[in-house]
User: Which sequence fits this backbone?
């Protein structure tokens, strides 16, 4: 039986690319949370705001699909965001079973605050990078993303096809 040497494992993990990426993602999450907390924003809400900012009024089901979460998760997020005055909900005029969601003026303002926070964090992260290094880093990250996507099955890839399509428009 192989006995795991935790010190050896820790060193291998910390020095692996996946280990470093995990640490970076965790730190980015913490930094985002720290800055967004000032505005009363919770994790997940910025993405919902960005989807509504980009696509306008959507049904709760469409929001869940675009965020890759369950409709029940969106319902909880919307309840909180409705209380803050960032979104409004209304029944679809043709199909009363469908609830449509849109940003309020206040929601649009907070979405732009998030965009500014996002820009500031990216500037912080890349402050010692040359333009060439930024371009190379982006290219390498996209290559990693593509490699991982090739490992996913077709059902998982379908979920991400829309993301690829949207990125190609940018």
Assistant:
């Amino acid at each position: 039986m192989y006995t795991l040497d935790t010190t050896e494992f820790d060193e291998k993990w910390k020095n692996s690319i996946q280990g470093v990426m995990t640490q970076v993602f965790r730190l980015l999450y913490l930094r985002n949370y720290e800055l967004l907390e000032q505005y009363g924003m919770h994790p997940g809400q910025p993405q919902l705001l960005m989807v509504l900012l980009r696509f306008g009024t959507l049904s709760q089901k469409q929001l869940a699909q675009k965020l890759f979460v369950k409709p029940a998760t969106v319902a909880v997020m919307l309840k909180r965001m409705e209380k803050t005055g960032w979104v409004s909900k209304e029944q679809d005029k043709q199909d009363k079973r469908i609830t449509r969601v849109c940003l309020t003026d206040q929601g649009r303002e907070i979405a732009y605050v998030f965009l500014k926070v996002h820009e500031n964090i990216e500037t912080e992260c890349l402050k010692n990078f040359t333009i060439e290094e930024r371009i190379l880093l982006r290219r390498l990250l996209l290559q990693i993303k593509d490699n991982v996507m090739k490992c996913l099955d077709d059902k998982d890839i379908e979920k991400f096809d829309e993301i690829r399509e949207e990125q190609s428009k940018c």
The radius of gyration is 20 Å. The first helix runs from residue 6 to 15.
